[in-house]
Write a structure and sequence with these properties.
- Helix content is about 35%, strand content about 20%.
- It is of the alpha+beta class.
- It is globular and about 70 Å long.
- The chain starts with 11 loop residues before the first helix and ends in a 6-residue tail after the last helix.
């Protein structure tokens, strides 16, 4: 019998077990370890820096394997969450999430898992980023009866030594194909592995940014050609979205390394070249059904409230989504990156964009293939709203937790008379049309997003109650993020750069941009 899960890019563990990931059990893994002669179990979990960590556990007996899978393992929280955990009380448990199981694409003898952190009482550790996001979504579901789903648009540069033939054009790389884009085969490998591990990749393509030769004081990238790529995901519950984005960054870096390339998600690589954004599309579901549109295809009341909530939270969200000084080199006018709090349809100059969602038309292939007689009905609306502020420096779990808190603020029925009313008014008043940077009067009427890490830290401290309510964000995390941002000391950076001679400015700007190639 051919498994329903045996597509070429299906999760190999799901194919071998002939089960959906949500059905995985411990005995399935013990059988798999024995049959595939696997030598180790590898646990992955998220550190305070937003990167994937790992613990390699060699397996010598079935009893040992079952114990590890049932009980998890002990790790040093004071190192993984330095500054938040006292060294004298530092032990945490990491426990595997069975649905996350995958065969390690870089170690064919390892069965890998994403883990959650638990404390000595078996409770979720409040200050770890995975549990903050889990708690935020739990609170949102309890208050509203809705589910928040998200997809990320992961942009990054691949830097390599390339032959100077079929050169690409500066800022003209969007959806280019080979031979003008040289790293397509590397992107193919990344997409294949990420799809097998997550099942959540929508598509991939080359992006706008291209730099024939990088000038840098950093030897790792100096003189290399930079090609910008994007991998976009499918909507998932916010916890799984975060998990798969962090896993994808791990895969992207490892595949690049194996090909002798450098992958970086840094917000800005060169002035005048597109930066690496990390846009998030959001959708609300009730009982498994998208409720972003009404019967006539227009945005639903819930979708508009969501937009209002995002607008209310927007200036403080940069604390989690734009965490290095060079983030604010990207958030400049006329660069398809937002600087003002507003929303619009299709408009890439707005902070929140409502993209096409197949709401007014469907079965489009029948319009261009007149011999296609078989009907097709999409199972539900695919409408989303896109939050465009975050970049490659984002602390993904915390940013998504912040988006979830914004949705809860706007949609909680118990506070609809106060917060919900404010959300509706914001959505009503902050809608714009056209390019806002060409209408000075409109531009000046819109609230400006923070222009530096230090300003973001200040706003976060002022609005910390938005995140600490319902015990979602611990105060220690708010203080940690604010201190991290303040250490950038970038409040007066733009005026300082403006005083320099052009060549001096370039050198200092590149030094700032390139210091964070691999921060998160």
């Amino acid at each position: 019998m051919v498994s329903k899960r045996s597509y070429a890019l299906s999760n190999p563990v799901a194919v071998l077990l002939d089960k959906e990931p949500k059905e995985f059990k411990r005995q399935d893994f013990l059988k798999l370890i024995e049959e595939k002669k696997l030598e180790k179990i590898t646990f992955h979990y998220i550190g305070l820096d937003g990167k994937l960590k790992e613990l390699k556990i060699p397996v010598a007996s079935p009893t040992q394997a079952e114990t590890i899978l049932a009980e998890g393992e002990r790790v040093d929280g004071s190192s993984l969450y330095k500054g938040l955990v006292d060294a004298g009380l530092s032990d945490l448990y990491v426990v595997p999430v069975y649905r996350s199981a995958f065969l390690n694409p870089f170690d064919d003898r390892s069965l890998d898992f994403i883990c959650r952190y638990l404390d000595g009482e078996g409770l979720p550790v409040r200050f770890t980023v995975d549990n903050i996001l889990f708690k935020a979504h739990q609170v949102f579901r309890e208050h509203t009866g809705l589910e928040l789903r998200a997809l990320g648009e992961l942009e990054f540069f691949l830097l390599s030594d390339q032959p100077r033939i079929y050169p690409a054009q500066k800022q003209r790389g969007y959806h280019s194909s080979s031979p003008f884009i040289k790293s397509g085969h590397v992107l193919d490998e990344m997409v294949r592995l990420i799809t097998q591990l997550s099942g959540a990749v929508k598509y991939a393509h080359s992006e706008v940014g291209y730099l024939e030769r990088v000038e840098s004081e950093v030897e790792e990238i100096n003189g290399k050609t930079a090609e910008q790529m994007e991998i976009e995901f499918l909507p998932e519950p916010v916890e799984e979205c975060a998990e798969h984005l962090v896993l994808a960054r791990w895969i992207i870096r490892n595949v690049a390394y194996r090909h002798g390339l450098v992958a970086t998600f840094t917000p800005k690589l060169e002035e005048g070249i597109a930066g690496n954004g990390l846009h998030f599309h959001l959708e609300l579901k009730r009982e498994g059904k998208n409720i972003m549109t009404g019967p006539d295809g227009s945005l639903s009341r819930e979708a508009r409230l969501l937009i209002g909530g995002l607008c209310h939270y927007a200036d403080s969200l940069t604390a989690f989504g734009n965490t290095v000084a060079s983030s604010y080199f990207r958030l400049v006018p006329n660069q398809e990156a937002p600087t003002r709090v507003c929303w619009s349809d299709l408009n890439r100059s707005a902070m929140i964009r409502v993209p096409l969602g197949w709401t007014r038309v469907s079965h489009l292939s029948a319009l261009v293939n007149p011999r296609e007689m078989e009907s097709f009905e999409s199972p539900e609306s695919r409408q989303t709203v896109e939050m465009r502020t975050a970049d490659g420096s984002a602390l993904i779990h915390l940013f998504l937790a912040g988006l979830t808190m914004a949705a809860d603020w706007a949609l909680n029925p118990e506070t609809a008379g106060i917060w919900g009313k404010q959300a509706a008014e914001l959505a009503e008043n902050l809608y714009v049309s056209g390019n806002i940077f060409r209408d000075r009067k409109l531009l000046e009427s819109l609230k400006q997003l923070p222009g530096s890490c230090q300003e973001s830290a200040r706003v976060l401290r002022e609005k910390r109650d938005l995140y600490e309510r319902d015990l979602v964000f611990p105060s220690s995390i708010i203080d940690y993020v604010a201190r991290m941002l303040e250490e950038e000391e970038d409040e007066n950076l733009s005026p300082q750069l403006a005083l320099l001679l052009p060549e001096e400015r370039k050198i200092l700007a590149r030094r700032i941009m390139h210091k964070d190639l691999h921060k998160h």
